[in-house]
Structure prediction request, 1022 residues.
Amino acid sequence: MKRLRVDRWTGQLLVASSSRPATPGVAAALRSRRCLSTTTTTRHQSAVAAEAVAPIYENAENVAPSDLRFPPLDKTLPANASSLPSPLPERALHSPKLAALHARLTLSPKIPLQTLARALVDASADPNPQFNNSNLAFVGQTLINYHASEWFMMHYPRLPMEVLYAAMKGLGGDPSLNKVAMSWGIEAAAAPGGEVDPGLLQFSLESTGDSILGFGYKRSEVNKLQNSKWRRGVASRVVLDNDFGEIVSRNFGVKHDGEEAEPTEKDITSYGNAVKRAISQKAHANCMRAVVGAVYTHCGRDAVKSFIKAHVLSRTIDLSKLFEFKHPTLELAMLCSREEFEPPVARLLSETGRLSRTPVFVVGIYSGKDKLGEGSGASLEQARWKASMNALKAWYLYSPGEDVRMPSDMLEEDAKPWEPAYIDIGEIISR
Amino acid sequence: MEATLTRPTACCCRALTSSALTSSSSTSRLAALSRPSLLSGVRQKSTKARHKAALNIPPHPTFFADRSSEDHIIFNPPSSAPSVFHTPFKFLPKSDPRRRAMFDAHLFASSVTTKFANPTSSSESSSTAPTAEDLPKVLERDDPMAKNHSLTKEDVEEMRRLRLEDPVNNSVKSLAKQFGCSVMFVMMCVRAPAEHREKVHVLPHQAARERWGPKKREAREARQRRVEMLMKGEL
Amino acid sequence: MSRALLRSVLELRATTRPSSVLLPSSRTLAAAAPATSPAAAARFLHQTTQQVEPTQPQPPPPPPPPSASQPSTTTIPSQTQPPQQPIPASVRTLLPLLAAQPGGHYITVYIQGQSYLVTEGDSVRLPFKMPGVAPGDVLRLNRAVALGSRDFTLKGSPYVDERLFECRAVVTGTESEPMRVKIKKKQRCRKTKHVYSKHKYTILRISELKVCKDVAEVEA
Amino acid sequence: MAIKALQTISTGRNGVGAFILQCKRIDIHFCDWAGSSKGMNGFIKSLLPKFAAAHPQIEFVVSPRPSKHPVAIGHYINGREKAICVRNMEPYQILKKLELLRDASGEKLKVTKPVQSINESVRGIWSPYHGNGMKV
Prediction:
């Protein structure tokens, strides 16, 4: 992971005074913030309980008698609230949904409700970085991807880079974090606005906020890559692309690993098409990352590590289903030659129904006397392919053990001296 | 006397006389008499009144494990396919604690099938279990010429010239036989001229495909998809 | 053949010292009464509401307070432990092998007389409603008949030694079955009596299953 | 590059790592006029404050529903609802019903197996081609 002085600049995220830009060091500078046309209520975000700014209330006299019998539920709604892009931070203290979400995640009392309310405001709802969750989401994403990549590299040191990217996306990517946010009971508001309940996730389906989230550089040849058959090697993905090896694109618009998602005319109007689902998925994922960023900002490094371990790393992902091979037997032979094992030989372990319509051959791949893998198939060729694939998976999915120590464990006080971990020399590059 | 569980070798020839009937126990004899199907008097699994004794299999030895008074660990590898998360002993890196602690190799290999356990297992067990060498090789193209690496540059040039000059007579097989190398090597060195490929391979191939009916075409596509699924591990 | 294999291992005098990680004995969650929640003693049986008691004054909890997985765990004085028998030799040598095997572990836990074969992350539906527990409580299950990995099985007589494993379950809630109707009718009598029943069952999630890696340390 | 990667999404299990109460909101409707809502009105005055304080993770919405029977509706994270009509019930009976809503997970009621798991089998699925066969 690129080195980042995370603790230095999260402090200023929250007390976002207008003088300094919110997040220096992000590759693409955020759009210059447009200071809000000061309406009668000036908005400012502060970690400490917001001091009372007296928004103007409708005076109660001219309210019709029937309203008296059923007084409006939300008294604190100022008259001009709907003109603001997102609810006022002070309203967070009176939102039952927000308090319920705070308690449901058993967040520490050090995290104020205003920060949680801010985590629920997406960049597409409120472009002003001082009031949306893009900064917190950026911190959260850095931490989640750091802990996830560390977990994978320590537990499965021989994973090929492509499979590591797929595993990282399976654990910390948008689809997975969207499911985590849903499992927290986060509901989305139909449309963003100042009058919305601060406990709802606010993002707009039409105007996509252009918050750049994550590392990676904009490739100049991005359209060539998508249209023609240009090859994008793994090395270039490590350097240029984001944490999951996907192309970073300037205009936020919805990208699924490169192909341009042009919503047709019909798509834009009907609710629930692929583009809108992707926008909602990204908003939920960013909200979850913002909560992780808030936990880090208020409770520190250990708290966020246990939070990520409890909510993200505890999810299961079957790594053996992420592999797709092209020439398994050839690759196994190259592996054995590289490691100076005897060349692999396929042997028939057991078979049944050779002349019938549904034969089963169980083939084992042996290197000298040792058995590397075993596979069964309807034909000898398929069984041999499967056996060599299983042998390769057994090689790539080697694990030192569940309780292998991680570099981040060294940050605790009484950490034992570090034993060098096993680092693999790399996967087999074959034709 | 151990007898593997196989179908009882009841001969079903018709010529058996009724004497076979008297040998079976009295109760089943009455049942056999009453049933015309058993005129031959032969008792088979297919007949309804089969003998229950054949199904009376003793329970698995582990049920008789000595009810010792203390906890004990038994070693009972399952009869199932090995999982890819069990790294073979050979694949363990040198620094791995499991290798350093000198675990006996066959213990881990045993998580595969003990029947075909690794020959390095302790001596008395190898007498029964076949070693790796006895198992028949699969699809071994022991093409003796495959590993002949004595061709020089001139040979390759000569081979190219011959091939381009007269692709029909100097076919890949004849060149391989002539230079004593594998067919794959010849094809790697030289490619037939375009029109020859067109005439001999591409056109007849396309012509054959046109004659295919929908069933055959779908079968071929299904076979192609099956290979893709296999490579994705879905099959 | 497998007997010979086993004997060869037992004679294996090489010191099997895989990289051991200290069992977090620091956590002093006392072995709860079989299968009832540690917080149960603090609540009467028919107390229905979930009392969010302040946890007793334990040593000052470490600064990061959000223990997401155990919101309300209180420690109760554990009743007298069964006399500590010494750990048998076969277990001492083979348990590290069992613990080191990849591919996960399974355990047959006993809850109120019923045995459940579970792995980590399974959800168990008990055939009864457990009184005095609320969703989110953590139970320590210490009665197990068998504990094993792919090739090795630790069989208890009749129960496995509690110190050799740590199995925790979280109460996720109480589900009820669909309404069942029992129609009671006698022949030649038109009166039919319908008896409706809808029992409630507690659902547990096995949140943690750890096999102790280093037997010597457990005995210390 | 020989090995390509397939995309999957990880699955989370409530309780492993972190436990989240599935009931996120309970709507409580009462009526000042209806006699059947007498118990509910008493419950709201007496027991509801303590119950709500004990469960900060549940959002309670109390609103009148004139000339209708009192009802408690639980909303769950999987988007489903459970409504319980508490007409003519005493406050303590209503408290029991609210606890039922709190403990429920919102899933449809069905008979399930005692143990439900998504893990691979530890000892693998039996196959006739492995192992030594059974000596008879």
Remarks:
- The helical segments of chain D are 38-46, 48-54, 91-103.
- The first strand of chain D starts at residue 4 and ends at 5.
- Chain D has a mean pLDDT of 94.
